[in-house]
Amino acid sequence: MGGMFATNFTGLDWWIVAIYLVGTVLVGVVVNKYIHSVADYMVGGRGSGTALNAATFIGTGLGLVTIMYASIEGFSKGFSYMVLGLVGLTSGIVLGSTGFVVRRLREYALTTLPEYFERRYSRRVRVTAGIICALAGILNMGLFPKMGATFITYATGLGHADAAAVAEAPADAKAQPTTAAQPATAADTAKAAATTPAAKPPDTAAATRARQEFMVNVITSLLIALVLFYTVLGGMVSVIVTDYVQFVILSIGLGLGLYFCLTHPALGWDNMVNMMKVHRGEAAFNPVHPDSYGWLWVVWMFLHGGVGAVLWAPEASRMLTAKDPQTTKRTFLVASPGQFIRLAIPCLFAIAAFCYVSQSGGLARHFFPDGLSGDAENAAQAMPLLMGKIVPTGLLGLLVAGLMAAFMSTHDSYFLCWSSVITRDVVNPLRKRELTDKQQIRLTRIIIICIGLFLLVWGVWYELPASVWNYMAVTGSVYFCGAASVLIGGLYWKRASSAGAMAAMLGGLISVVVIFLPGKITGNTMLMGIIGLGNYLFCAIVFVVFSLLFPERPKPATQEA
Amino acid sequence: MEGWITFWKVLCTVGFSAFYILVLFVIPLGAKDLIALFRHLSRDRGTPPEGEETPTETPATQ
Predict the structure, then answer these.
(1) Which of A71, A296, A321, A342 could connect to A346 by a Cys-Cys bridge, CB 3.0–4.6 Å?
(2) A393, A81 contact by CB (below 8 A)
(3) Among residues 16-55 of chain B, which lie with CB inside 8 Å of chain A?
(4) What is the mean pLDDT of chain A?
């Protein structure tokens, strides 16, 4: 019974992962000696070249949480979810070739993005933007550890006790995918899924599962502690170095996963496409199909993706770490394929998982209790489970190390960005006497630890909501909706004023309400599209109206820089 | 539907190939950039180290 969730992960794989993690700690210790100023600590001395900047830009955006939410969506929505990868590719190409916003922002030699708001508008706008930006970012991070824990559980086989919760028909033993899949026909699978009720897990299995869940939480907590350690010590320099190493390992890991998905006898491109076609229909390929995401959601995502590329601090900070404006522009262009694959590859893994699951009656019942055309359950478990089953021992350790790298590369950038924003844009401007470099670095380190503690409490022990991606998108909206108008208006509209900026920033807070709406609403992509686009429109209108009603003479940037 | 299937096939082929070609260039050039970054940071050693009190960087001086 446990075989259904058992994987190829062995002691050798644990060793590979452990060696990688120890190496990461050493990086933090070594690079600490290069930190001499706030600019070194927060933007790596603004010395990154194009290739390094692009690698770390991709490394930051390609987090384990990204891989997990993309695979959750891809598992039920199929290829349609790849439209988000297309959004990333398009915005990267547009921003990288035109330099729209990004080039100008780098010319200001900022340390954080909200600094720009003080230069263009007022200190009050900067502090407000700093608070909202950090609030949105820390809320957004809330789900990261739980996603990481889910991946570790199912890729390493720690989740195999869950098998007791699943009824396994005797015939399934022959259809075990680990033993290379004697695929059941789609009709058989759907019939079995529809007629066989799930058995209740025995008490002993429940106790084992609880122990394993506790163990996974402990592992995730240790990973967070590890990231805290090297980020606190080395700041942006260690983030750049580890993100670079993580980019290398992650590229290899994802490539391996891709290879095994495309070459496994039960999978392959044609099988995956056919399974999706048979069970999920056109909605699995056409993102604007009424049973898929729909037009409004897709339009919202194109807007959200473009805005996020320049405003989402952890990734946008790569504009600021580049050695000059031209490098910033090139970074976006060079990294644009990375923006595509960061969502498309995990989505393809999830489609492979669907294909795999559809060939095993037991797994099909676990993931699709109402049949393969119905709603998916436990979707977060599918992709890691597939990886654990199809990637052989040894290489699986490399893949898991790569994905743990993804976990860490996102956490380190997020920790540093949000703490830098709080220090530089909230605490420092509110003080009568500015903090010294030493005080700023010390305060940033304390805030990093506080955010880490928040994550340990909120992220590890908090239950996941049903729609992870919508949670991420909405937490982003809290900041994006207002800041988009404020930033673009500030750069390209002379009549933009502080009053308009304040009104727009506060208007974005409406999105906080959406986080607490019931799953029925947040799971409705059409409604989410309307709410998301509506909030952008509302902020743009209040920005223009308040700027016209309460004008001010904008300060010329040349006198300040 | 067939049109969409072809579209995703072409996009995946082009996107994945472009990324792995990028990886081939970014890994060695990134390592070179990394060495340059450490040189750049080492040159700044003339400035007081982290432990010493220095005036903060104000936007006007950056």
Answers:
(1) A71
(2) no
(3) 16, 18-20, 22-23, 25-27, 29-34, 36-38, 40-42, 44-45, 47-55
(4) 78
